[in-house]
Amino acid sequence: MKLVIGDKNYSSWSMRPWLLMRQAGISFDEISVELGEASTPARILQYSPSCKVPCLITDEGQSVWESLAISETLAERFPELALWPRDPAARAHARSVASEMHGGFGELRSAMWMNIRAKWPGANATPGALADIARIDAIWSECVARYGGPFLFGASFTIADAMYAPVVMRFNTYAPKLSEAASAYARHITALPAVREWIESALRETHRLDKYETPQ
Questions:
Q1: Looking at residue 65, what DSSP letter applies?
Q2: Tens digits of per-residue pLDDT, 18-41?
Q3: CA distances from 206 to 9, 51, 175, 202, 215 (A)
Q4: Which of 64, 92, 65, 78 is nearest to 25 (CA)?
Q5: Percentages helix, strand, coil for the chain, rounded to the nearest 5?
Q6: Domain layout of the chain by residue ranges
Q7: DSSP string, 139-150
Q8: Is 111 left (phi over 0), alpha (psi -120 to 50) or beta?
Q9: Cβ neighbours for 156, distance < 8 A, ≥ 6 positions apart
Q10: ω before 193 within 30° of 0 (cis)?
Q11: How far is it, in rounded angstroms, from Cα 127 to Cα 134?
Q12: pLDDT tier for residue 216 given thresholds of 50, 70 and 90
């Protein structure tokens, strides 16, 4: 399989399936496209009809675009990996919090974009972004307390963790105040070898998008 992604420094949606596949040991070839350039749309359209990344190209040549759709496809193809929790109640909970991440937290997304190379403690802390952060803190704290950690749904990394990993990257950049439970979860995700690999690649990138390089 092939996974088409954008800049590791900026592309939060690309990080989600990339990390899920790396963490689960699913083999794939990586196709990286620099975002925001004149040639970017044409390059992405070779693989993704939505003209957006990420996009998974299956062994059969089928394009699967959008992070959650890719994750669901992988869960179907590799049921033995338990990319969702095996327990039905926990699985429904995991799908709920993953979908909340997928469709929500717009204030956080717009005010605190992902820039792994940057360190902007306290920047862009709009009321809406802070409200989103409080909700995310509550989700993480509740899940870790209910399922025992260190991941959101117990001992195993799931799609829900992949969905929230780019939020951890944002929190590393903007350093909002978090509860101890949420802070511990963020530290655990940051320390994962696959996450460290992503971060180190982002730090080596030289491509810059000026609109994401200056905090408001």
A1: E
A2: 999 999 999 999 999 999 999 999
A3: 10, 23, 24, 9, 19
A4: 78
A5: 55, 5, 40
A6: 2-81, 88-199
A7: HHHHHHHHH-SS
A8: alpha
A9: 82, 85
A10: no
A11: 11
A12: confident
pLDDT per position as a tens digit, 65-110: 999 999 999 999 999 999 999 999 999 999 999 999 999 999 999 9
Which two structure tokens, joined as six digits, stand for 199? 């971060």
Q: Which residue in this structure is represented by tokens 């794939």?
A: 28
**Cα end-to-end span (Å), the chain:** 39
Q: Which CATH number fits domain 2-81: 3.20.20.70, 3.40.50.10320, 3.40.30.10, 3.40.1050.10?
A: 3.40.30.10
Q: Using omega within 30 degrees of 0 as the cis cutoff, is the peptide bond preceding 85 cis?
A: no
What is the rounded CA–CA span in Å between residue 166 and residue 115? Answer: 10
| DSSP secondary structure of 119-141 | --TTTT--HHHHHHHHHHHHHHH
Calpha distance 57→146 (Å, rounded): 36
Task: For residues 191 and 195, give the distance between their C-alpha atoms in angstroms, rounded to a whole number.
Answer: 7
Provide the CATH number for the domain formed by 88-199 in this structure: 1.20.1050.10
Residue type, position 3, single letter: L
